[in-house]
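Morning run. Coffee first, then this:
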Amino acid sequence: MATRPPYTLTPGIVSLVAEIAERVGQLTLASEDRLRLRRANRIRTIQGSLAIEGNTLSEEQITAIVEGKLVIAPPREIQEVRNALSAYERLDHWRPEREADLLEAHGILMAGLLEEAGRYRSGGVGVMQGEQVIHMAPPAKRVPELMADLLDWLATCEEHPLIAGAVFHYEFEFIHPFADGNGRLGRLWQTLILSRWRPVLADLPVESLVHAHQADYYQAIAESTEQTDSAPFIQFMLEHILAACQVNTPQVTPEVTPQVVRLLAVLDKPMGREALMQALGLKDAKHFRQHYLKPAMAAGLVEMIQPDRPRSPTQQYRVTPAGRRLAQNQKETP
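And here it is:
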């Protein structure tokens, strides 16, 4: 019997699962124009997931690649985009618990980028943050056994897919089974697990929200490792899945607070906190943070310019594509 990974189902996690399930029901009913939604959000998904790994291509450039247009950019970054597009197109063909499918997905994601594409690593690997090693993965000789155990657990576990997907994602990153490409494949595989539960979840740009909160993503992984319990990571992922559902649910617009609407209206270019408060006529920094900035970021409407340095004194914020769409809808609504 497969070993159960260590995780705790906190009241907050259980509540998030219930709320996401409700939102997904609304999305499933409202997905008449699903092809358009899928195309736009898949581009955002790929841009967000690759940006976490250092890829600098914009949504506009990725759209041009999809349309077969010439894009002037580093060849490796273009190859990463093409590989990711191919991998996401094959989601419907893979089963999350099959090792052969996992290896095939890695081979597609890393084709032309890594000599060991589609094969488990043969050497040691660590996760770096700047010049600091924040996690040393298990020895390479243990990878096949650890991955077999994790996939066996995934095949037999009775947890809700929202829980199973997040647990798998964390454990996959902890094992770090490949020489490179672990982050993008871990996020892809969680999407695959979720799409087997509700296909519409394959069309939500969760990765773009994770990119907007990249420092928190790595912090959640670090906290889970320190606690030997993936609950912090589960909580993080569920919060951002919920945010993706909210942004893409048609009924969400009336629920956006007037404060967030005002913030989107003044944020016409990247701005720092002080400039934003001045534009809004606010003096209380705590009130601004709690009622304007945090709700807008949690909903994926505003993002940091420097997500890997959230406390930087030069930090600025900008409206995301979802935020621009929402702001435009607000202008057009009588």
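Strands lie at 126-129, 132-136, 302-304, 317-319. Good start to the day.
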